[in-house]
């Protein structure tokens, strides 16, 4: 993975403005790991104990990053303070740079592999987040169905251009998976603020179980259950110890939906990963294809299990 930019890479004018927000000179920094953007992802701290999180990037580092960071700043500026999200502090342009500053969320990225307790903490936090963010408080956000319209039709592209080495189960059930992804895309309408990229890299868990949801570049409007469902689709549970499929069923039942709706949306999610994994990595984001292939590998057994169970129901 390409090394991230650091605090020392930023122009003095940016560092001075951030220090003004900090209220003191920066005495030390902590780089944050995870994710794929070359943006800085760094905690800056003063001897007073005050800390801020700084994300800064130029288009030359990654053409998409400034747009994504602006979208995140827009979302954070409107998310209620009662949500489990680090508070917005500042966002500004300085020459070619776009800079986003927030408070520091408590905790650390969750240890991997997942534990049942940490999954419970995250699902509780997402339920609370989307309770306080229904109706959606952020203006001018796209609908989830529009934001995912291309990504969630991956199996239709695979059917037209089948990659070599396609999983035999996917190949055997390709037409059914095409129909499922179409149903899944049609199901994700709603008026709740959705993060759309909840995964381990974008979560902080404090020792007491408190959770912060970070990195809001893909915020959109969708159903209350969407983030929790897609999050569970990123959890490896090859042997069923974490009961991910049962947790998905509980989520669907809680929101008054048939279990198959969850499976259909996960089929669309799988189609995105399988289709996207075969594309060349962007030069600025090496390793992205391998990341997507890994999620696809985890999702196939989950969906196979759910489809077998639903056929017997």
Keywords:
Phosphorylase Kinase, domain 1, Aminoglycoside 3'-phosphotransferase, Chain: A, domain 2, five-stranded antiparallel β-sheet, 11 helices, 9 strands
Task: Give a verbal description of the structure.
- The chain has 313 residues and is an alpha+beta fold.
- It folds into two domains: 7-103, Phosphorylase Kinase, domain 1, CATH 3.30.200.20; 116-311, Alpha-Beta Complex (Aminoglycoside 3'-phosphotransferase, Chain: A, domain 2), CATH 3.90.1200.
- Helix content is 42%, strand content 13%.
- The chain is built from eleven helices and nine strands.
- It has a five-stranded antiparallel sheet with strand order 1-2-3-5-4, with helices on both faces. Strands 6-9 form a two-stranded antiparallel ribbon.
- Strand 2 (42-45) and strand 3 (51-58) form a beta hairpin.
- Helix 5 (154-160) packs antiparallel against helix 7 (174-186).
- The longest helix has 25 residues, at 288-312.
- The chain is globular and about 65 Å long.
- The N and C termini lie far apart (44 Å).
